[in-house]
Amino acid sequence: MLTQSDIAPLVALALEEDIGSGDITAGLVSADEKAIASVITRESGVLCGTQFVDAVFDAVDSSLEVAWLKVDGDKLKANDRLFTVSGAARSILTAERAALNFLQMLSGTASYSAKLAALVKGTSARLLDTRKTIPGFRLAQKYAVTCGGCHNHRIGLYDAFLIKENHIAACGGIREAIETARANAPGKPVEIEVESLDELSEALNATADRVMLDNFSLDDMRQAVALNNAQAELEASGNVTESTLRDIAETGVDFISIGALTKVIMPLDLSMRLS
What we know:
The protein is of the alpha/beta class. It has ten helices and twelve strands.
């Protein structure tokens, strides 16, 4: 789950840019008018973003009451009712768009993650997100990925090493880069990217914790798994699509990283109705 410090700044920004100097359309409704609104999904998917919805309605009008019928991670069917909100009609109408924006976007990410996770079901491979996230929304998007049954790679540049081609060149080689990482931050996971089986052997000899196989062919991935012999974790990366995902998973790699988990955003189709 996310913390309020993760959520509050994003909600404040969303409401500031949406409401501005005031919601002139909601002002057409009497201040005394009360209403109950229901939100449904028009399509199947996986729910994510309930905390943001709560925070939006609370920020607009703390007297509004939100009642959830589903929780984050629930699988949804078309026409499922997700929640109701009751109170001042003006407040509900003002908060509607911001609340649904968060819920649609994060549920879309959770739903796509679930779709890809289903494609590798029965294999030992786990699907990882990347740092290719919307600025400011990294923790929210990574949370949505987990709601869909996939997993998080490192959160940022601070919690694990991912040594790539340019780092290797600047450090003087694979072994030098790994040894420097161990010395600079003992205990931090060390992952290194390789582009050939020879480089994989170097990385294994230097005791990398995880090795990223960059754009390996399926045959080379199988050879990499055999060469590795469970010495390090192996992560496949590059040329990962819905059509290639299952074949990659069946090579025996431990992880598959997919930028599309957070780059491809297909918002879940939701609808709110007042009564």
